[in-house]
Design brief:
It contains seven helices and seven strands. By secondary structure, the protein is of the alpha/beta class. Strands 3-2-1-4-5-7-6 form a seven-stranded mixed beta sheet, sandwiched between helices. Helix 5 links the parallel strand 4 and strand 5. It is globular, with a radius of gyration of 17 Å. The chain starts with 8 loop residues before the first strand and ends with a strand. The structure holds zinc ion.
């Protein structure tokens, strides 16, 4: 796993607003503390999320973009790309690969953080089909698309210089082989999660669940009780 001193820029590619805050916001707070520039790419606007039937669905995309932008600020992230795909309908299309490649070529990150392209049979919620589709499309964008100067002839991303990403960090799951101790950043991760007001019927219960999850992850990686950690499968893509 590259260390912050070896990284200038990180791109986080997620299916929905709030995915990054559940899974990696502690790590991101520590990266931005260390001077790394972190950029978010949100594939959908999360139009299908939430619980409140009184909010018109046509308003949900704007609400969720605003919530994600506030949450990003809590962990030191000021740059967000919204690709505008429709929540619940994400498929691994050439259009999606093109769109993600364009963001990779624009941001030029050493590290990309994204979902697993593989369904985790032990995690129904973690394996939302949008998550797996975004994970697969992002892996395709990392290799070969973004680094292939001949990819996407005639389309906008072909106008940008090609770029090779050094590492992909896949969010948690059974294949995780590395971790980041986020104990010092947990309060900021919780603050980021709480920005997603439209998604939480009971924010205190969400906080308790998240504290327990990331506490058990820390213990699984041998950290002392009371610690919290986020875990990743680190893939060398050089
Ligand atoms: Zn999600």
């Amino acid at each position: 796993m590259l260390q912050p001193s070896e990284i200038e820029r990180v791109l986080v590619v997620m299916a929905h607003p709030d995915d990054v805050d559940f899974s990696a916001a502690g790590t991101i707070a520590l990266l931005t503390d260390a001077g790394v520039e972190v950029v978010y790419c949100l594939v959908t606007d999360g139009q299908a999320g939430g619980f409140d039937h009184s909010i018109p669905r046509t308003e949900m995309a704007a609400i969720r973009r605003e919530e994600q932008t506030k949450a990003a600020a809590e962990v030191g992230v000021a740059s967000l790309h919204f690709l505008g795909h429709v929540d619940g309908s994400v498929e691994v299309t050439m259009q999606l690969r093109h769109d993600i490649s364009g963001v990779i070529r624009t941001v030029r990150p050493q590290v990309v953080i994204t979902h697993s392209p593989v369904r985790d049979l032990a995690s129904t919620y973690g394996s939302h089909p949008d998550h797996n589709a975004v994970g697969e499309a992002t892996m395709c964008a990392v290799y070969p698309d973004a680094r292939n100067p001949f990819a996407f002839p005639g389309l906008p991303s072909a106008e940008l210089d090609d770029w090779a990403v050094d590492e992909v960090w896949i969010l948690n799951g059974p294949d995780a082989d590395d971790f980041v101790d986020i104990t010092a950043a947990l309060d900021r991760k919780i603050a980021a999660l709480r920005c997603h007001v439209s998604q939480h019927v009971d924010p205190d219960a969400v906080e308790a669940r998240v504290r327990a999850w990331w506490g058990s992850t820390a213990v699984a990686f041998g950290l002392p009780a009371g610690s919290t950690a986020e875990s990743f499968r680190v893939i060398d893509t050089r």
